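sorry for the late reply, my laptop died twice this morning and i had to redo everyting from scratch. anyway the thing you sent over, i finally got around to it. pasting the sequence first so we're on the same page, its 104 residues, then the predicted structure underneath. double check i copied it right bc i was rushing
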Amino acid sequence: MIMNIKKGDQVKILTGKDRGKTGTVLRAFPEDERCVVEGFNLYKKRARPKRAGEKGEMVSLPRPIHISNVMLVCPSCKHPARVGHRVSEKGTKERVCKKCRAAL
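ok and here's the structure:
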């Protein structure tokens, strides 16, 4: 399956407790069809103290979300849109917003 979401893209969360919110993709895992969105799908992990006398702490880390649960937000029309592909005049492939036909 072709993954249309890349690092740095703005996406909207479609399902789960963070539904309706938008965020930036920090990492993409094409082989697993998952992506990590900044500030969403957080879980708490216990961090051990680094040296004697310090206390341990709870750290919130983002977990990967399946790409079917996020939708790319078009930078030109500012709406979540499906992604198409076309070959530009230069001969390179580019992603295209299906709503406004702008290049992503």
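The mean pLDDT is 90.
thats about all i looked at so far, will dig more tmrw
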